[in-house]
Amino acid sequence: MSYIPELFASNVFDAHVMKERLPKDIYERVMNTVESGAALDIEVANVVASVMKDWAIEKGATHFTHWFQPLTGITAEKHDSFLSPDGNGGIIMEFSGKELVKGEPDASSFPSGGLRATFEARGYTAWDPTSYAFIKGNTLCIPTAFCSYGGHALDKKTPLLRSMQALEKQAMRILRLFGNEDVKRVQTTVGAEQEYFLIDRELFKKRPDLIYSGRTLFGAMPPKGQEMDDHYFGAIKPHIAQFMAELDEELWKLGIYAKTEHNEVAPSQHELAPVFTTTNVATDQNQLTMESMTRIAQKHGMECLLHEKPFDGVNGSGKHNNWSMSTDTGKNLLEPGETPSQNVQFLLFLVAVLRAVDDYQELIRVSVASAGNDHRLGANEAPPAIVSVFLGDELTAVLDAIENGSLYRDRAKKYMDIGATVLPPFPKDSTDRNRTSPFAFTGNKFELRMLGSSASIAGPNVVLNTIVASVLEEFADRLENNKNFDKDVITLIRETYAAHKRIVFNGNGYDDAWVKEAKKRGLANLVTTVDAIPEYISKKSLAVFKKYGVYSKEELKARYDVKLGSYYKRINIEALTMVEMVKRGYTGAVVDFEKDLTAMLVQKQSLGMDVKDNFEKRLLEKVSTLSNELAKRTDALDALLPKIGTYKQAFDAAKYCKDKVLPAMNDLREVVDELETMVPGKYWPFPTYGELLYSVQ
Ligand code: ADP
Ligand code: MG
User: Fold this and answer.
1) 8 Å CB contact between 273 and 258
2) What is the C-alpha to C-alpha distance for residues 614 and 605, in angstroms, rounded to an integer?
3) Is 187 near ligand 1, meaning CB less than 6 Å away?
4) For ligand 1, what atom is nearest to the CA of residue 324?
5) How far is the CA of 277 from the centre of ligand 1 (A)?
6) Ligand 1 lined by 123 (C-beta under 6 Å)
7) Cα–Cα distance between 66 and 108 in angstroms, integer?
8) Closest-CA residue to 569 (of 557, 577, 558)
């Protein structure tokens, strides 16, 4: 496909376009802003805006929008047209520097967790020049941060940028200690692999649960699930292939290098892997990817399900957050080095991550917590809710050798002194690659696998960046004051590993034995969102976020409230949907079936047939018992719901949903799923799992 180089990023106002179109000095000042994060002068902004507008109009754009990520986890846009009256009854196409750098959307329609007092009901958006503007449809989209007039971050991008700065500052200190004088910048990098389901859109439209909640709230397992593995290894179906081709093309235009040709474990499940970039851009790109998937799927007569657990009993969808740190000189700080000194540096960064994850396990857990992900974490297909780190046997042996002061024996059974020798290369794709670890080292990066498929990746990356920054700061403080650097750094690696190796677990995370073992090691096991969420606003959490200016106390509390709010609102919607589906759908189906069975019985009786132990009679009795149960459990669930809205504290409402509403939902589902196995298809009001999962060709 020779046109790809031309297509790639063709809808992005990137460095390339800017270099070509901006006056040299303006281009340099913009790039300087991109690199230093400094504010842009209005004169510069005016020039950029004008050039950007011309470029966008050439590409067919008529509108522009500040594109931002409020706390809802999805993206928001407010479109304005370029058109302005020219004062003589005509129009001109206008876009000023002021409009580029600052916007004023009506903030009151976005959740703020109480951050926006009424006197500052308006918020503003500010251009983030580190993420390039792009064109979507007929609109020039300008990636922006979203803040209140009081300066509180109302979005996901602002804290992410702050956390990247925090990490950069501390990582630079460490790099200087190792004599890396040429490095000017350190950025965290992320590649977010996205899992999703594609189902037939006509069938989707017949399922109120999918429409309202993104997941099926009822549904018996079809005779065939994912046990044959034939989908994973099978060829991609023609219809899906067309979708993927268009998705690839759309994403390439947006400068997202995606490889989408990949089926996943469950039937109808797929995965998209992008090439990694800075955490900030990766977050924007992942949002764009999810948006594009949804839109393009619909165009192809399908619906893209991004929910963490659309089908009970079938694998859920996650988002694998591959995370590392990179220098502007192109060095990945989690890549084992080629010289002894580089290796020590690598090991120091590695143990810094280990310690950060151990010290702040609860924060990592809470950063991936949501009502949807609760159905996935800890189930047998997803990482457990216990946070641990997979290092692999080889790297563990290296660190063990350092801890014990012994020599490391490599695969060829050669002994080596780690401090003085080059580390052996770690195979990236070793065959024993662990798939069950929530946080796995995969050769040159860590892969956080706990994140749910629908979530923004911002949250967990804010946590990772901040907690690693905090450990690196302690390391730098200690090493900067030391005389014998070479020796002290090894001591630091040894001590850190010894103190935090409890977080390392290379075994099977799905095993029950691990739960017991983790408990013995003192690791947290926060099973649900409600269990995990108090950790978000714990003293420890607040201290680390405040120290690096990532979240203020108010900003953190706001996110806590929004998270809880979306948890209980989601469950409330699900429960209401269940009640509606029963009352308007299942009840009628069951009654019709009972009616026909009864009629048949009466008929047989009138013919003088003995119906005492008759098939219809036995079936009718079974269905009738279940339909009574159905009514009872529906009423029980229904009766619980009004209370949700009466709690003053969001936490109490969430806890009530978890303790009372979710179990009642499960009880109700149980009867309906059992009825589904007895009531013939012609009565059944909604498409079945079998139809949903095997419909797309
Ligand atoms: P694997 O074999 O582990 O799946 P891949 O090379 O296919 O490895 O990468 C998986 C994901 O990790 C991709 O999205 C890729 O871009 C990302 N990735 C690779 N290197 C890095 C890195 N240094 N930082 C962040 N993400 C990375
Ligand atoms: Mg992966």
Assistant:
1) yes
2) 10
3) no
4) 24
5) 10
6) no
7) 16
8) 577
d(CA 223, CA 613): 29
Residue 130: what pLDDT?
Answer: 87
Give the Cα separation of 11 and 614 in Å (integer): 70
Of the candidates 546, 501, 545, the one whose C-alpha atom is nearest the C-alpha of residue 522 is 501
322 within ligand 1 shell (Cβ under 6 A): yes
Q: Tell me the CA–centroid distance for residue 122 and ligand 1, in Å.
A: 40
Residue 431 has pLDDT above 50, yes or no: no
Average pLDDT over residues 532-552: 97
What's the CA-to-centroid distance between 62 and ligand 2, angstroms?
39
CA-based radius of gyration for the chain: 28
**Residues 621, 624, 625, CA angle at the centre, nearest 5°?**
85
Cβ atoms of 472 and 167 within 8 Å: the answer is yes
Q: Which residue has the higher pLDDT, 476 or 343?
A: 476
- How far is 454 from 207, CA to CA, in rounded Å? 19
Q: Which residue has the tokens 């457990």?
A: 384
Give the model's pLDDT for residue 341. Answer: 74
Per-residue pLDDT band at 486 (split at 50, 70, 90): confident
Long-range (24+ apart) CB contacts under 8 A made by 98-101 are: 98/42, 98/45, 98/46, 99/49, 99/64, 100/45, 100/48, 100/49, 100/52, 100/127, 100/142, 101/40, 101/42, 101/45, 101/126, 101/127
From the CB of 262, is ligand 1 less than 6 Å away? no
CA distances for 376 relative to 384, 515, 693, angstroms? 9, 16, 18
SS3 content of the chain, % helix, strand, coil (to 5): 50, 15, 35
Extract the tokens encoding 29. Answer: 């000042």
The pLDDT tens digits for 553-600 are: 999 999 999 999 999 999 999 999 999 999 999 999 999 999 999 999
Cα-Cα end-to-end distance for the chain = 25
Indicate whether residue 275 lines ligand 1 (CB < 6 A).
yes
